[in-house]
Structure formats: C-alpha cells, structure tokens
Amino acid sequence: MAVREVLVAPDPRLKAKAKPVGKVDDAVRALMDDMVETMYAAKGIGLAAPQIGVSKRIVVMDLAREGEPAEPRKFVDPEIVWASEETVPCEEGCLSVPDQYAEVERPKQVRVRYRDENDKVQEIDCDGLLAVCIQHEMDHLKGVLFVDHLSALKRSMILRKVQKAQRLKAAE
Ligand code: GNR
Ligand code: NI
C-alpha cells in the first residue's frame, strides 16, 4: 500500500471524464487500498481515483467519526439509479480545493448501483452525509468539482485563493 499525491485544482486531470473499470481484479483492489491509505493520510472522508491522477470510475469513502473503528467503503463503476426531487444544502470541501468551503445544493437522497471489491453488484440507499459525499465523489468521475456548482464569481475567488496558497507552498 502507498500514499499517493492528491492533485490540486486547476490540474487538467481533475477535469477529465473517468473510464469504466469493467472487472474488479487484484490490480483494482491494490489501487483501492492505495486510495484508502491516501484518503486517511489526507484526512478526507472520500476520494475519487481522478484525484490521484487515475482516470477510472473508482471511489473510496469512510464516514466513521474519529475514535470510531475505521469503515472503509469502496465503489467501482458507481451509477446513480435514482435521486430525490428534494434537495438540501451542505457545506462542502475538497482535498483538491484545499482549505476552501462553500455550500452546495444537491438531491437529499440517492440510490447508487456499484460493484464491490469482489466484483459483486450492490445497491445502496444514501441520505445525509453519505448522500452528499457520494454525489461529490461521483462528480469527480465526470471531471466536476464542488466549485463548479457555484457562481462564476465565487468559483474564481476560491480557485484564485487555492492557486495563491499553492504558489506560497511551492516557494517554501
Ligand atoms: O474530505 C472531504 N470532506 C467533504 C465534506 C463535505 C462534502 C464533501 C466532502 S468530500 C472531501 C474529500 C474529497 O475531496 N473527496 O473528493
Ligand atoms: Ni473532492
């Protein structure tokens, strides 16, 4: 297992549409282990493969609170098969848009079909933080960041701050 580097906007690899995985084999399982390790190292609650420069439809997540046992979840080729009409706002952040937060409105509930690490088809009903996070992660598979849901003005303000912070970090 290895911690990978998390890409930061405006990296063009974050804008690409990820490819379906097809079969879940040992290589995919090893990649998902790296993703989980990278997510924990970065203190995120989710991570999509494009964030480590891998253009594949893979998402990992762990919503367990600090002090609770780890609960890593892995989703291959996830699809939203149903979304509620009702939407809710939630304050979102992203490891690829470090230290920036903004409210995004999304469907309150979604049903997601995916394949697990044993290549078995599963369906899960999502609500609350799980619904927010899985929609945020699945956006990454389309090359969409949470800032793309904001006004052009808010988006450019946030991306400018991120670029400035990255420049300062590079100059350290
Ligand atoms: O760690 C993360 N926290 C978070 C908070 C609110 C809504 C979505 C997220 S996902 C984010 C990790 C990340 O960037 N995943 O792509
Ligand atoms: Ni993100």
Produce the secondary structure layout.
Layout: H1 26-42, E1 46-48, E2 58-61, E3 73-83, E4 87-94, E5 97-107, E6 110-115, E7 121-126, H2 128-141, H3 152-170
Antiparallel strand pairs: 1-2, 2-3, 3-6, 4-5, 6-7
This protein binds ligand GNR and nickel (II) ion (NI).
What's the main sheet like?
Answer: 5 strands, antiparallel
Series of secondary-structure elements, N-terminal to C-terminal: HEEEEEEEHH
What is the SS-derived class? alpha+beta
The CATH topology turns out to be: Peptide Deformylase
Query: How many individual domains?
Result: 1
Proportion of residues in extended strands:
25-35%
Find the count of extended strands (DSSP E, 2+ residues).
7
Shape: globular
Give the assembly state of these chains.
single chain
Question: Strands of the largest sheet, in order across it?
Answer: 1-2-3-6-7
Could you tell me the radius of gyration in angstroms? 16 Å
Helix content: 25-40%
Please mark out the parts with pLDDT under 50 across 5 or more consecutive residues, or reply none.
none
